[in-house]
Amino acid sequence: MVSFADRHIGTTASSQRQMLDALGVESSLEDWSPVEALMRQAVPSSIFTDASADSVIPRAASETEALAELRALAARNTVNRPMIGLGYYGTITPQVIQRNVLENPSWYTAYTPYQPEISQGRLEALINFQTMVAELTGLTTANASMLDESTAVVEGMLLARRASKKASNVFAVDADAFPQTKALLETRAEAVGIELVSVDFAAGEELPAELFGVFVQYPGASGRVWDPSAVIDAAHVAGGLAVVAADLLALTLIASPGSLGADVAVGTTQRFGVPLGFGGPHAGYMAVRAGLERQLPGRLVGVSVDADGKPAYRLSLQTREQHIRREKATSNICTAQVLLAVMASMYAVYHGPDGLKAIAGEVAAKTVMLRDWLADAGADLVHDAFFDTLRVRVPARAAEIVARAHDSGILLHAVDADTVGLSVDETTTVADLHQVAQVFGGQRERAFGFYGSGSRGALPGDLLRQDEYLTHPVFHAHRSETAMMRYLKGLADRDYALDRGMIPLGSCTMKLNAATEMASITWPEFAGIHPFAPASDVGGYLDMITQLEAWLAEVTGYDAVSLQPNAGSQGELAGLLAIRGYHLANGDTQRTVCLIPSSAHGTNAASAVLAGMKVVVVACDELGNVDLDDLRAKIATNADELSALMITYPSTHGVYEQDVVQITDAVHEAGGQVYVDGANLNALLGYARFGDLGGDVSHLNLHKTFAIPHGGGGPGVGPVAAKAHLAPHLPSHPLAQRAEHAGGFVFEGGAVSAAPYGSAGILPISWSYVRMMGADGLRHATAAAVLSANYIAARLAEHYPVLYAGEGGRVAHECILDLRPLKEATGITVDDVAKRLIDYGFHAPTMSFPVAGTLMVEPTESEDIGEIERFIEAMIMIKAEADAVAAGRWPADDNPLVHAPHTAVSLIAGEWEHAYTREDAAYPVPALVAGKYWPPVRRIDQAYGDRNLVCACPPIEAFA
């Protein structure tokens, strides 16, 4: 029977033998397979780990067995009616969106839209998202999503600090903010020297005398709806900025933050059709007033023009690394929650402004109905102005009331011993309201009608919304399911994802996301769980999390794992905060210097800055390795202040550094800690462990090594793993169901994500991957990935220099092709090659990272020999085309490379006047005739889009 590993790994035994023969690899010992011999050539013997027979990871399960085990875990979760609120609400995902987006590999296997010509579908969806957020919040510009609401609040605080002209370090925080947001603010503020001051704004408490900003929760966590415009005005008078966290559904009925004077609006779009998922993934949002556009963290989609002057979408303001500037960093957010932002935007497209307002009106009316029934029962309501959330005083009975509600299948929230909180949402039925009223002593029998969605509920009349929103035709044109289905299909057809072909991006590990791995994420027992549900309701989740943490701890050589970070950048930050906490606990307050190699990804330095560290850059040698002499010199210079070294292993250059143990030893001898970035773990899994090579802490990328799909630029999960001495400083959470984790440690660090277990709703994907691969399968996947990378490097070496290799001449899981000699000889640039690959039916490899003018290629273990050979053929043909330009066959300014990519329209419109033929443009290899991917736009003018910043839906006339 064929195993799951055989299905996952694209190259067969015979094709691997063919590739090994091309590399000249033979096994010298009977107990080594040839691919094992390759790994022994590549991985330094000082860190090489032989296969273990006593792994805690069970033997590989079949797909059927794994699903059965997941069904058993899911059965241990109880799906009760979630009325806890606190930023997480029941919502109805339209089936047309669930099936055509969430469950559609055309959407979930796409990569970040750095190649915009083949990303027009998801870029349009993100423009819809930005327009939706900007118009609902009443502000001018929104970004393409944030990680979650609480993280967005932190980013709003940091934005206010850098945009304010006040020198103050004081930030005033609404006393009525969500508890998880307060916790995250405390974690992040302390590390960068910000003083938080809690103020009960709604009660009229005065602002601090000096501040750089204020944060208002609107409506408040208590449900209270009030007018914060006076607080916002006072903040402006004091020279600060106002950040408002607003509920988008409520904003269909109440005045927008922009109309109240806010500078920044943040929040979550979860209740726009995105399942609860035990806390995520969900798309946070951020919008800003005019003048703050260039301060926005993360990604921003804008409108530019292509080579024909037609409108085209792309990422604006170089948002890939917009704020990731080493020691000058202002944010470490380099990603988004694209798949979830697409879902939320399509929820708005499907319902339109009238539909959203009707949903909000029904929620408001039901909340009033519940208020009335509770009042009839003699309950004491805390507030009389609200949208969807009530607070009820029940002296000394809160726990009893919450327990009684739980027994009847409804989740309420004990605010304290004397107060119960509850929230109504789209899924709440009148029967649910009646059940809640009975819990508080209401009538058992009741005759009632429902007075519909037109009511303003209990909202203050002077705060009712007056301005329009979602006026663009896209929010009015797709009401029928037929129209919606076709719209989603049309957008998907404009994109290139893994369902079309290989995405050979170095450092990104675009591997297969198997259907069996994805199957369980929409099961109600996983998708319908509130992140603050009681531990008794989430036994299956907690068991799965414990198992996954233990498996990840074993394969990395660490003692404890936290799954809370919901992106790699947040895992980096959590790991560095753990190091910071460790030094502070030891009284080493002076240890603040973080050494980072010059080749490192920008988020490394950005995370260090946000962890309160000072970045010192270490040089790399001509082979791409850390310069040991420079490292030792930097250690000596900063010995007393050394906090940490951050390295990526294998290196950012795709090489297994031979001296890694010497490097980590030198840092430890000076009293520092070693952070090993886990971005390249796919080259190591099963053959070496971070903890064994000297690592003290690492983050992992479940969206790379462990099969969670990239989703067009998110979701991600970035767990942090650590040795025992750092484990107590890993993230905790005030609302976590338990403090114990896989290593038996109680984590006492601060929260780094809004939910206790981050994006728990997609953890079944990685659980399934490990469970079905088993320890041996994971090891085989690593070897297959390394083999494919070395095969590509060897086959292309005579056409493109391979920039770096290890001492044995081997690369790791990726190789860097140097295109600078090609440009010098032919004038053809790395951009030209990347765009020409589109004509050949490929997504380009990573461009100009970590070295400008290069392509970093990572085939992953999932690609078969046919696809690998197709890519090699394309790269060889493109080199020949460049040589033809140099030889004068085609002019330097009129050849297939500089005009790539070619759309179908560009080939048939008007007379063909180019020096090359239509066939050269469209079908450079015969295989393309049968299944050509046509890009929807020609090459996009990046500079035009930055000079003419438009980040919302353009009018229909623009496409005429």
Automatic annotation (TrEMBL):
<feature type="domain" description="Glycine cleavage system P-protein N-terminal">
    <location>
        <begin position="475"/>
        <end position="732"/>
    </location>
</feature>
<dbReference type="GO" id="GO:0016594">
    <property type="term" value="F:glycine binding"/>
</dbReference>
<keyword id="KW-0663">Pyridoxal phosphate</keyword>
<comment type="subunit">
    <text>The glycine cleavage system is composed of four proteins: P, T, L and H.</text>
</comment>
<dbReference type="Pfam" id="PF02347">
    <property type="entry name" value="GDC-P"/>
</dbReference>
<dbReference type="InterPro" id="IPR049316">
    <property type="entry name" value="GDC-P_C"/>
</dbReference>
<keyword id="KW-0560">Oxidoreductase</keyword>
<comment type="similarity">
    <text>Belongs to the GcvP family.</text>
</comment>
<feature type="domain" description="Glycine cleavage system P-protein N-terminal">
    <location>
        <begin position="6"/>
        <end position="440"/>
    </location>
</feature>
<dbReference type="GO" id="GO:0005829">
    <property type="term" value="C:cytosol"/>
</dbReference>
<dbReference type="InterPro" id="IPR015421">
    <property type="entry name" value="PyrdxlP-dep_Trfase_major"/>
</dbReference>
<dbReference type="GO" id="GO:0019464">
    <property type="term" value="P:glycine decarboxylation via glycine cleavage system"/>
</dbReference>
<dbReference type="GO" id="GO:0005960">
    <property type="term" value="C:glycine cleavage complex"/>
</dbReference>
<comment type="function">
    <text>The glycine cleavage system catalyzes the degradation of glycine. The P protein binds the alpha-amino group of glycine through its pyridoxal phosphate cofactor; CO(2) is released and the remaining methylamine moiety is then transferred to the lipoamide cofactor of the H protein.</text>
</comment>
<dbReference type="InterPro" id="IPR003437">
    <property type="entry name" value="GcvP"/>
</dbReference>
<feature type="domain" description="Glycine dehydrogenase C-terminal">
    <location>
        <begin position="781"/>
        <end position="902"/>
    </location>
</feature>
<feature type="modified residue" description="N6-(pyridoxal phosphate)lysine">
    <location>
        <position position="704"/>
    </location>
</feature>
<dbReference type="GO" id="GO:0004375">
    <property type="term" value="F:glycine dehydrogenase (decarboxylating) activity"/>
</dbReference>
<dbReference type="Pfam" id="PF21478">
    <property type="entry name" value="GcvP2_C"/>
</dbReference>
<dbReference type="InterPro" id="IPR020581">
    <property type="entry name" value="GDC_P"/>
</dbReference>
<dbReference type="GO" id="GO:0030170">
    <property type="term" value="F:pyridoxal phosphate binding"/>
</dbReference>
<dbReference type="InterPro" id="IPR015422">
    <property type="entry name" value="PyrdxlP-dep_Trfase_small"/>
</dbReference>
<dbReference type="InterPro" id="IPR049315">
    <property type="entry name" value="GDC-P_N"/>
</dbReference>
<protein>
    <recommendedName>
        <fullName>Glycine dehydrogenase (decarboxylating)</fullName>
        <ecNumber>1.4.4.2</ecNumber>
    </recommendedName>
</protein>
<dbReference type="InterPro" id="IPR015424">
    <property type="entry name" value="PyrdxlP-dep_Trfase"/>
</dbReference>
